[in-house]
């Protein structure tokens, strides 16, 4: 088990995310936004943030465990109230990282879907790989990760899960922790 493990559970027409971390209050599982039979949106965020080294997006904030920012919340009601009192806005760096993560997660999955014949090409969105502005090395790594995840996800029955580790435990910005 890593310092932060993220479990994606396939449900009928949706998915659930559970985060298990070694610091901070235990978090309640939540349903993920949207649905994909190949690469759910929050999986794309995790893979993008890992491969692009984004520390201030969804998963770096969870690793930092220093206050509630509304993406996930503690399972225990008393811890939830304490967390809400500590709520703070993201730093400018975290906001920039989140915007970059959101753009890359949406764009690279769409480009991957076109490349794999899951989506029709459209010059308006996602456009062509060559004009996407995404580094080809990053795209290659993400496409490989998406291929692997999609195959594993497709093989799951509803109720089945895949757990992925977040490799950067220290958090970011004011949330940065030192690892021991």
What does it look like?
Helices cover 39% and strands 13% of the residues. The protein is of the alpha+beta class and 180 residues long. The chain has a four-stranded antiparallel sheet, with helices on one face. A hairpin with an 8-residue loop joins strand 2 and strand 3. The longest helix has 24 residues. It starts with a strand and ends in a 14-residue tail after the last strand.
Low-confidence stretches: 172-180
Provide a count of the helices: 5
Helical content class: 25-40%
Task: Identify the overall geometry.
Answer: globular
Widest sheet: strand ordering: 3-2-1-4
The mean pLDDT is 87
Sequence of secondary-structure elements: EEEHHHHHE
Strand residues, percent: 5-15%
Structural class: alpha+beta
**Termini separation (Å)?**
16 Å
Rg estimate, integer Å = 17 Å
Largest sheet: 4 strands, antiparallel
Total strands: the figure is: 4
What topology does this entry show?
Blueprint: E1 4-11, E2 14-21, E3 30-31, H1 41-52, H2 58-64, H3 77-85, H4 92-115, H5 136-154, E4 161-166
Antiparallel strand pairs: 1-2, 1-4, 2-3
Give the gist of this structure.
The chain is 39% helix and 13% strand. The chain has 180 residues and is α+β, with helices and mostly antiparallel strands.
Name its key features.
alpha+beta; globular; 180 residues; 39% helix; 5 helices; four-stranded antiparallel β-sheet
């Amino acid at each position: 088990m890593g310092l932060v493990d993220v479990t994606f559970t396939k449900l009928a027409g949706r998915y659930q995310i559970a985060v298990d971390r070694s610091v901070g209050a235990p978090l309640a599982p939540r349903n993920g936004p949207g649905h994909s039979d190949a690469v759910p949106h929050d999986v794309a965020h995790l893979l993008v943030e890992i491969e692009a080294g984004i520390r201030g997006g969804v998963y770096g904030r969870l690793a930092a465990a220093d206050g509630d920012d509304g993406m996930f919340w503690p399972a225990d009601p008393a811890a939830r109230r304490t967390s809400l009192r500590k709520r703070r806005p993201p730093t400018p760096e975290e906001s920039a990282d989140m915007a970059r993560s959101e753009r890359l997660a949406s764009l690279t999955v769409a480009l991957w879907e076109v490349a794999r014949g899951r989506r029709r090409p459209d010059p308006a969105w996602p456009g062509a790989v060559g004009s996407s502005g995404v580094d080809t090395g990053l795209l290659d790594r993400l496409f490989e990760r998406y291929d692997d995840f999609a195959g594993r996800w497709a093989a799951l029955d509803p109720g089945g899960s895949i757990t992925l580790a977040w490799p950067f435990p220290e958090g970011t910005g004011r949330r940065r922790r030192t690892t021991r």
